[in-house]
Amino acid sequence: MALSSDSSTGRDSREKITIQNVSRSYESTQALADVSFSVAEGEFCCVVGPSGCGKTTLLRAIAGLDDPDGGSILVGGDPVTGPGLDRGMVFQEYALFPWRTVRGNIRFGLDRPACDCPDCEARVKELVDLVGLDGFEDAYPKELSGGMKQRVGIARALAVDPEILLMDEPFGSVDARMRDRLHGELLDIWTQTEQTVVFVTHDIDEAVTLADRVIVMDADPGTVQSTFSIDLERPRGRTARDFVDHVAQIRDELGSPVETSH
Amino acid sequence: MATQTDTSSSAVVTGSFEGDLRRYLRGLGGLLVFLLVWWVGAMTTQPSYLVPGPLESVRAFVDLFATSTAIVVPILGSSLVLPTGLAHLAQTLFHYVPGLLLGAGCGIGLGLTMGWNGALDDWLRPLVRVLRPIPPLAWIVFAIVWFGIHHTGAAFIVFVGAFWINFYGAYGGVEGVSGELTDAASTLGVERDLSMLKLVALPSAAPQVLTGFRTSIGRCWMIVVGAELFGAPGVGYEIINASNNLAMATSVAYMFLISLAFLCMDVGFRLLERRDLAWR
User: Which CA distances in Å does A175 have to A148, A167, B3?
Assistant: First the structure.
């Protein structure tokens, strides 16, 4: 493994996540081959690529849920050895605990280790407000729509105040109109919390709407193909010329027409 | 942030009042037709003890509560006088309840442990494969030689029956815990295996565990009557005892009693399930 620190990634901004030469293979496929990049503190970073490019594997590796075969992942300078409360994860299919109410789901991380209850209640209330779920605190996940479930998923991940938010195609199962609204809400939350976000998606529009920087990955083997900085004012209109140019550029880079938004 | 929500929880009307009424009337109709067939069958069959009629059976059922019988409470050794029907039902419950609870407890315990612990699963799976297909009643021979065919022996048979059903409920429930939920829990700070079992695996498996237990309530009634046909005291024994005296109507009365007892337990447990599993 290369120990050099004179990599192309600049040291001007503080690196929150450093991925160095990470590889991961399953039986017959190489999900990740020598992937290296870094994410600056407070940066909103989107990872796009066709299915099978290892973007989910990469996210799980940062979360500590998957152990790469080679290379290293540093979070705040320390190697990742397993899951931790410093990295919150939002799952594509929500992964809410169906036997817990909205409140119970949001509280889950706060109760490990058991914390001071009055504080917890206030924190839950704050999060319920933040994601706009007032009045649904006692609902069970089965009673919620996809968009609402994902708000619970986000609130649950935010509850323990992680420094990094890892999002795995979180709005992939949400209808287009709701997705637009959730994008706005997510950016509001990100502005407030100043977290570092790594957001995986296969939707280029979504990536350009949200990200400071878009990492484009290629499949089989999964590698980083290129990186785009998106220096546009937020909120970003999808019909603006610059926006369309960025999207076209990334689409060209990906080469083939990847799955577009639903 | 916007506070409007995308709720689409329009109340789904399941079964109007008229629909319910129609269903009840049909059910009642089915019962009446059955009674009629039974009645005609009983009228036309000779000798009459082959098929006791409905009226005769109801009379026998009422008679179960007109006389009293003294029974001995196991362990305490004291005697108890109850209306005959209840006395024999109590005798059955003296081995049914401990057998069911112990069997369910052990079955759920082993099922959870095996479902959660891969190494233990490897060790025990072949053994389970071999022992599982043996019908609980086949163990009656050992019940007889080890405990004698009395309360303990019958409880043992019930234990075996309850054990396997509950074992599979718990085992399947824990095995079916979604990896995504355990992943979510680990990113939220659940580190120890035991905490994961308590916080994720158990609640997630609860519906299957409870279904297993409810199934075992019914199965154990079949098993307990089987054990009593071999001579353990209780309603099953009374069925065969009455038929030995050609009092077939009394046999039918005890059959009713078993059905009633099972229904009460089943409905009670369903209510409990509905309350505790509101999230499903």
Answer: 12, 17, 18
